[in-house]
Design brief:
Layout: E1 13-18, E2 24-29, E3 33-40, E4 45-52, H1 53-62, H2 64-74
Antiparallel strand pairs: 1-2, 3-4
Helix pairs in contact: 1-2
Biased composition (Basic residues): 20-29
Family: Belongs to the bacterial ribosomal protein bL28 family.
Keywords: Ribonucleoprotein, Ribosomal protein
């Protein structure tokens, strides 16, 4: 599995590190990914998701049931 949030699809992006003298070197901006285990009552089991910190807040706001329904519609969850 790649370094991508399963809920939001957030992945690494690229940019420049800029020094004091304004020299630029390439760098990566990586998402803050966490491996979280959620209980899903409709499935009567735990699921493990790799989600970003913003994805965790999205799950708290929308609810795990709605998020799992979206994942199943996209075919990411078996």
């Amino acid at each position: 599995m790649g370094k991508t949030c399963q809920v939001l699809g957030t992945h690494a992006s690229f940019g420049n590190s800029v020094s004091h003298s304004h020299r630029k070197t390439r760098r990566r901006f990586r998402p803050n990914l966490q491996r979280k285990r959620y209980w899903v009552p409709s499935l009567n089991r735990f699921i493990v998701l790799q989600v970003s910190a913003k994805g965790i807040k999205t799950i708290d706001r929308r609810g795990i049931e709605a998020v799992v329904a979206g994942l199943r519609a996209r075919g990411e969850l078996g």
